[in-house]
Amino acid sequence: MSVQTAMSRPTLLAGDMGGTKTLLAIYSLETHGLQQQHLQRYVSAEWPSLEPMLESFLKERPDGINAPTHGCIAVAGPVRNRSAQITNLPWQLQEQTLALAAGIEQLELVNDFGVLIYGLPHLSDDQQVVLQAGAQDDGPLAILGAGTGLGMARGQTGDQGLQALASEGGHREFAPRNDQEWELACWLKADLQVERLSIERIVSGTGLGHIANWLLQKPEAKDHPLRAAAQNWRQRQTGDLPALVSQSAAEGEPLMHRAREIWLAAYGAAAGDLALQELCSGGLWVGGGTAAKQIDGLRSDTFLEPMRAKGRFKQFISDLQVTAVIDPEAGLFSAACRARMLAESSGRLD
């Protein structure tokens, strides 16, 4: 990049929007990498659409911060044909319309989990924790992350640089690995009244609640202190049973510790399957809202051994670098990384 003064240096727009909140930020490219210059948090439902929010954000940016030239906004929903329908909001987003509203040259919409692919190669040490040290090359990347559901994404470097590829791998069929998981799967199918059980029914924050609920329905757990909370969560969708499970497990309560162990093992198995499917020699990452909260479990053999237990490919998995993303603003940072790629490809950062 050519030497530029601070006032002439191009800036980038990054966004991370969901049905509840939207983060908008402006980044500059410094010698040490991307630097966040301005950040605002918005309650999504308080705005009629994203366009006026963008206009307000850019109009009210502090003095001395240049208007961005390129942008990327991560959105909670699928992106097709440069447009997106936001989950839990009646908003239809179009890239060209948003770029005009923001007054920038180019803006790209990317799924809010898939966008992480663009940030993974650039994460600093304080944004991630190594779960398994290993080799990395310029091969495919992959990430999965348990939150409300189970997100998955993959990336491949080609002629135009790193490209994120959408995935709905969390909706693959759950394959029980032992008698315990078979019993759980049969019970959960009946409880949810479904014929097919996806991985995310078990490997997600919600899944941790399902596992605990299964254990709490057993006769030997009739006097357990969380049984009533589990019933309310199951029947009325009230309370945060997964959080109660995690807290009880951390305090050493035996049954909830067992629930957490079952969940971690299934999560590890799903991570190993993704690594095989993508042959992600460029690295495997674990993200999502639970990564930072469950970091001790993710570093344990309860997670890592099922991940590695892939028969003839055990050594391949054991040699991979596996890393957890712990930065709560990783999506926003990754959107900024994608915006930088767009600016570079346009020649603005030469």
The second-level CATH architecture of the largest domain is 3-Layer(aba) Sandwich
Round the Cα radius of gyration to an integer and report it: 22 Å
CATH topology of the largest domain: Hexokinase, domain 1
SS summary, helix count: 12
Helix vs. strand class: alpha/beta
Model regions low in confidence, pLDDT < 50 over at least 5 residues: 1-7
- The span between the termini is 5 Å
User: Biggest sheet: strands, sense, closure?
Assistant: 6 strands, mixed
Share of β-strand residues: 15-25%
Q: Give me the count of strands.
A: 14
How does the overall form come out from the CA principal axes?
A: globular
Order of helices and strands: EEEHEEEEHEHEEEEHHHHHEHHHEH
CATH class of the largest domain: Alpha Beta
In total, the number of domains comes to: 2
Describe this structure in words.
The chain is an alpha/beta fold and 350 residues long. It has two domains: 1-115 and 327-350, Nucleotidyltransferase, domain 5, CATH 3.30.420.40; 169-325, Hexokinase, domain 1 (3-Layer(aba) Sandwich). Helices cover 36% and strands 24% of the residues. The chain has twelve helices and 14 strands. The strands form three sheets. Strands 9-14-13-10-11-12 form a six-stranded mixed sheet. It has a five-stranded mixed sheet with strand order 3-2-1-4-8, with helices on both faces. Helix 5 (205-216) packs across helix 7 and helix 8 packs parallel to helix 10. The longest helix has 25 residues, at 254-278. The protein starts with 10 loop residues before the first strand and ends in a 5-residue tail after the last helix.
